[in-house]
DNA sequence: CTGAAAGCGCTAACAG
DNA sequence: CTGTTAGCGCTTTCAG
């Protein structure tokens, strides 16, 4: 069963020729080098032995690796799956892409990056790297950063237009009359999350509104965490007249919705909820979630294109992928209120749909 | 910037020693071999040059690869992300795992498998391989199959207990009075889906009920496909008195729910819906979906364990991971009906929640 | 047209 | 204790 994998030497011995001949034949550069008879015999032997060249050895010899590594924090998040898909498709003609994620926990550390670097890879893509990782990072091959605003290393980046995303969301909420908005954050030190919150806050303030942070930010990107952080913060928010909550990511928003429902709040009657990312499930939950579409597939494609350019020495500094706000039923008009502070005592129970 | 990666030779030259010395030092086997002074100087040079051994070259030399490849159909499906996570964690002490997926399309072909095999890998894990792939497959290293019932090659397998899953679901539906159940299938030639449907049908029949296939099975695992197939089949189902629909996967069930709602059907009042997989979002949609939990993380862990065993020559034939039925609001009592056939003409519109 | 030889970066015997 | 040698599987000059 575990037939030892055939090597070029095996083929050569079977045919009675040299290894170089089989090398030429399998790589198809037979033109004017190998006569047709020999070629046919080699090809037959290749078939028979099911020989396929050892890619690692080939890479070692040619110094032209055939795969690029994609490192991301958590592949369970459908967002990264979609990014991976776009990336993979856009480089498929020339490279295979292999995914690397932390074996456990919430985010990748420098170790995962170094593991990837220690293989022979043509390029490296780092998705949403933490500042901790970037401090320790040393480039050893063409590298592209994805979703890494604030990282001022000279590396090519592909970022989302988070400013327009946040601004769009803010304007929507402002137009609906929201002046006090709770914010459920995640990884407050990671560039992409810093920026989301920042632009949202700026835009809200320009509209004369305020962002109120949750008591604590989510430690993990799970529904449960979103739920727990919401419960923890709700008293504080309620006392300060919060009429809408924005979550740093849809998954947390799901948790917020669940918690709000459990607390007997009607959405959006008593509380509006919105998120970032717009993963496909956001349109299906109850109520459908207002969210900013991050165009994950495009992001992956852009990363692939940037990678190819970088490998070819035409490094692009920064690519920006646009985002799109999707308005759904989870956001609605703010409950009318009089002063800047209101005591939303109890709940005037509208049927929680 | 793109400082050429340092090699063992570079380190040796800087220190003025042989490459073997640095090899011994970096791999920590310095005991009684290298004197402390030399060791320290080498370590200093390693630091200075930021030397890290080329893993591919090391593998080539030692013939003991350090990573295992995981091939799966579609990483956008959170199920596989979770499996990957479990797998990754369970082999972390000894191996890194790298993911391989098709660059586009819905399923991996033999090409993806061969790409993986052509690297130096310690093991290969194939998730839900199609029969087409398995026909062409030739093992070149320890291989473990995941979710591959019906594949009678002599390879170690990790499967779900699909029989108890389907039986549990059937019994639930039977108890609720359902006698005509629509079935929304996906990839009807892939082992895992064949088996899901089969056991469901058998269990339904034992209870005197029938499974009615959709007009066509879903070509892709997306909400849209589920929706389209439902619409297409609903007339047929309705005419035959179908009171519940089971989807081969939760994602399709989401589509069915959306379609049913659009058709003005109340769930579960007029139609019950259930799925397989129980991805985390299933508890959040409206209405929450009754589904069979596939324990993705455990499945991944089991695959990791089976892999380790196989590598160590103690191949396990088959590992079965249990499943668990989660009852939620999407399933309820069948609308009372008189004969085996009922004309559910129109819709007595109960408010679609 | 074809084979022998060198070398990619590393490790593992074996001498000194 | 340390360096030299050989070789992992492949590609690539360079002679013949």
Automatic annotation (TrEMBL), chains A, B:
GO molecular function annotations of the record: DNA-binding transcription factor activity; transcription cis-regulatory region binding
| SMART domains hit by this protein | HTH_LACI
Keywords of the record? DNA-binding, Transcription, Transcription regulation
Residue stretches making up the HTH lacI-type domain? 6-62
Is Oxidoreductase among the key words of this record? no
Gene3D superfamilies referenced in this protein's UniProt entry, alphabetically: 3.40.50.2300, lambda repressor-like DNA-binding domains
Q: Where is this region: Disordered?
A: 331-353
Under PANTHER family, the record lists: LACI-RELATED TRANSCRIPTIONAL REPRESSOR, TRANSCRIPTIONAL REGULATORY PROTEIN
Query: What name goes with this protein?
Result: Transcriptional regulator, LacI family
């Amino acid at each position: 069963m575990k037939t030892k994998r055939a090597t070029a030497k095996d083929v050569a011995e079977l045919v009675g020729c040299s290894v170089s001949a089989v090398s030429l034949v399998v790589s198809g550069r037979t033109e004017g080098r190998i006569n047709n008879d020999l070629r046919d015999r080699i090809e037959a032997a290749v078939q028979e032995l099911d020989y396929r060249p050892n890619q690692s050895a080939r890479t070692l010899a040619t110094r032209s690796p055939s795969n690029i590594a994609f490192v991301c924090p958590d592949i369970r998040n459908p967002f990264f799956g979609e990014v991976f898909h776009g990336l993979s498709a856009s480089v498929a003609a020339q490279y295979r892409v292999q995914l690397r994620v932390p074996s456990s926990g919430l985010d990748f550390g420098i170790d995962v990056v170094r593991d990837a670097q220690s293989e022979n890879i043509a390029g490296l893509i780092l998705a949403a790297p933490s500042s901790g990782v970037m401090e320790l990072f040393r480039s050893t091959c063409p590298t592209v950063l994805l979703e890494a605003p604030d990282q001022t290393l000279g590396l090519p980046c592909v970022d989302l237009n988070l400013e327009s995303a946040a601004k769009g969301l803010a304007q929507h909420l402002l137009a609906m009359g929201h002046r006090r908005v709770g914010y459920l954050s995640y990884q407050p030190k990671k560039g992409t999350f810093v920026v989301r919150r920042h632009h949202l806050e700026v835009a809200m303030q320009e509209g004369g509104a305020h962002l109120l942070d949750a008591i604590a930010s989510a430690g993990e990107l799970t529904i449960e965490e979103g739920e727990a952080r919401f419960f923890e913060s709700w008293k504080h928010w309620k006392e300060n007249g919060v009429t809408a909550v924005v979550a740093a990511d849809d998954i947390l928003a799901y948790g917020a919705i669940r918690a709000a429902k459990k607390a007997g709040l009607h959405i959006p009657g008593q509380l509006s909820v919105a998120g970032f990312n717009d993963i496909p499930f956001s349109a299906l939950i109850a109520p459908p979630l207002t969210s900013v579409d991050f165009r994950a597939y495009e992001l992956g494609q852009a990363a692939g294109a940037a990678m190819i350019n970088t490998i070819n020495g035409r490094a692009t500094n920064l690519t920006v992928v646009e985002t799109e706000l999707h308005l759904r039923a989870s956001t609605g008009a703010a409950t009318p209120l009089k002063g800047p502070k209101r005591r939303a005592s109890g709940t005037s129970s509208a049927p929680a749909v």
